[in-house]
Amino acid sequence: MGGAEHRLGLLAAAPLALVLGLGFLAPLAIVAAFSTMPERVFDLGHAPDFSGYAEMIRQGYWRSLLRSLAMALTATLILMVLCWPLAWAMARIWRRFTLVITIAVVLSLFVSENIRLFGWVLVLMKGGLIDGYLRHWFGVGVDGLLYNPPVIVAGLVYVYFPFMLFPMAQGIAMAPEDARAAAMDLGASRWTVLREIDLPLAAPGIMVGALLCFVLSAGAIAEAKLLGGRSVISIGDDVETAFTYAQNWPLGSALAVSLIAVLGGLVAIGLARVDLDRIMGRR
Amino acid sequence: MADGAAAKAWPVPAPDAARAPILEVAGLLKRFGDFTALHSVDLKVREGEFLTIVGPSGSGKTTLIRLLAGLEAPTDGAILLRGARIERRPANQRPTCMVFQSLALFPHRSVAENIAFPLKIRGVSRAARRARALELLDLLRLPQSYADKRIQDCSGGERQRVALARALAFDPEILFFDEPLSALDYRLRKTLEMELKDLHQRTGKTFVYITHSLEEAMVMSDRIAIMRAGRFEQIGAADEIYARPVSRFVAEFMGEVNLFTLEGRAGGLDAGPLQIADGVSARLGLAAGRRATMMIRPEGVAVLGPGETAEIMLEGRFHDTYVLGSRIQQRIDLDDGRFATVETLREGRIDAAPGAPVRLGWPLARTHIIAEG
Amino acid sequence: MSADADLTGPRRGARALLALYGVVVLAALYLPLLAVGFASVSKGRYLSFPIRRYAFDWYGEALASDTVREIALTSLKVALIVTILSVFIGFFGALAFARYQWQGRRAFQKLALLPIFFPQAVLGLALLMWFNALGILPSWKTAVVAHLVWISPVTTLIIAIRAYSFDPALEEAARDMGCSTWRTLREVTVPLLAPGMVSAGLFAFLLSWGNFPLSLFTLGVDATLPKWLYARMVSGYTPLVPTVGMLSVGFSAGLLALGLAALGLRGLARRKAGQARQDI
Description:
The structure holds 3 protein chains of 3 kinds. Chain B is of the alpha+beta class. Chain B has helices at about 60-70, 110-120, 125-140, 155-170, 185-205, 215-220, 240-245, 250-255, 280-285, and strands at about 25-30, 35-45, 50-55, 75-80, 85, 95-100, 175-180, 205-210, 225-230, 230-235, 260-265, 270, 275, 290-295, 300-305, 310-325, 325-335, 340-345, 355-360, 370.
């Protein structure tokens, strides 16, 4: 059936390939092209002079990029620690509770993140859920919970929690159950089993989750805007400003390309060795 | 250390029934909710013996071995290792090792790393670990070059050996085996059965093995324990169980067998289709109302020529021949719808047409009587 | 197996802690929604906790508002179109992803995943520039395209998961009995993948309905609920914000409940039919 399946495969792939080609690859290519154009032009008919990149360095936008990457990295590391016990329990211990948690977490994804982040604003703001009730009960409140870098990281952790939890749980589930029992039988303590067996065998899942969280949070804007106020400008925010208010497409493109280059490189390295068929359960 | 060919000399104590058992199970009970997997079983394992627990699936043997290995705790009862109670001790605190059905090799580690793992966690130095891993590769007849091979690149038989090597690495007192050969093809299984038996003799360790395959058990073990529905039916040497089973279940489990119900009557003996000589009936001495089962193995049944008699005789019609290789089994239909099986070597087979009348007979001495409780 | 009996897993105390941790995480997950809920029933114009006076006034106002209705309709329009298109694309995409053995499959798999591993805000901005460069005015139509770019891979994956456990022998048998490719697709493939398609459709609708980053940049002058809410959050805050937010969430929840009920009923009907057949 080789030839026929080959044709069928191509045919079936066509719709998605078309959508992604026109809606994903093409825009990115255009952005890349614009990043080479002279300042403040709106068409590609000029000689490339990479002024967008020059401006990026001159004006210090690269700092913005680094800050975003740093916050993304922090959030990802925090998420790895936070999610591990839960993912482990979901994959190895619980049955019904795993289902409950899965449904509850998936449901939260359907609520747009600005509403959820707004909710956190209501919780953390002056006169908000925490401050208001503390004042009401104890007479003293807490202030300054919002509009600082840590709360932005907290927001990233909150929003991208499911994107670490599920891949991690899947990675743990894929590790053979017997290997743990065998390791214990051979004399390993629980901690040794964790270090020598659980973590290495769950590595593909952890990798996918970490990549996903890092990539998504590096380009996120809502957390910085809603929770962080003006304390930190994320790189995404800078790109937005360049595209809209500043009307400087080449600059915005240069910023975007820099971000995408970093993220793209990471994804390429990280996903290169992951076998998608195995992760998704091909028999 | 020793040269490649000679394996390390292990002290080999002979299984001695008189000494205290190395492992003892007393009143072991395991319940899963409403379901009782083990009904207060008792067992004594002698040091250095190869004991196989055989039974159909669901008989509780897997539960038992997991309790012995320390992967689960019993609902009640005790497990004693050299007199010390260990039933609540987790597996990593027991000086025993289990070879899992799936082998449970660590896919992310090489062959040598797998084998040396128990030594690594006991703080043995890298050089010593490596040396020991190579030693064990020798013992298990794997080439030294396999040390850095990936597990995925090893064949089924090779993986078995790696699993065995790993289990022996830290010198456990007892090795448990959870049906490790069941997934292998016939040829490989036969080879490994021989090797396991050989390994047992060379290392002198106590092996407790579970399987559903009787054949495997018979080939390798010193003693066999037949398990059914959470209880031991019979424990003994293969020979013993084969010739003198204590129940119909064991008799049938041990292979093709002819079973006939005997019932004591006031005037004599009701033996169904069997014709038993008078004197023999008296020797059986079955009281009125009591029942027993007469067991005769197919190889004990003889075909009677015209005019020949035997202490116990049976008439039937020839049905068919089944060639089993070196042995031939032939089926004789009886009047009441059942059939008897006769087994002979190739030369001794019955030469008859289907439906032809056949007379079978055997002496009482070749039978075994199973009392009904 | 009771928790006590497993000697290889965590001990009793550790298990209790883990369960507690799970509960805490769930609570933290939904705390902000709780806050929004509270805010939506507060009577006063300026929000502060604890809420002094409760009223459902804002709900009334929200439901009566023309603006809100129009925006909700736009959200609905976009979500419905995205759902239908993305399930269609996802169906074929899943077949290419998981079912057929063809040369470009591995590359296709990686391509299909790229939009998921990409920050949505950046994608939205790239699309904005793309549309502008093409001379297309951003509107709800361009938002549909933007949503499709992100959601089609998601539906593809969801249906692909189902396609992975698909026994190719079923299609081969149909073909063996004389079905053409199209017929096979209709009679065998679609029914087998149908549950996956329904889940994917539900996912697609809910993800589109609640999508924020893409909608923000590609809607142009049109607005969906998330975009409108965001605009009001950063300037021009009105107490309608939490209210409309809760209404939007409520709609999602209601739809999800309907979807699950439909799936559940279908499963039930199947089982009943199966039993009836067995009784015969």
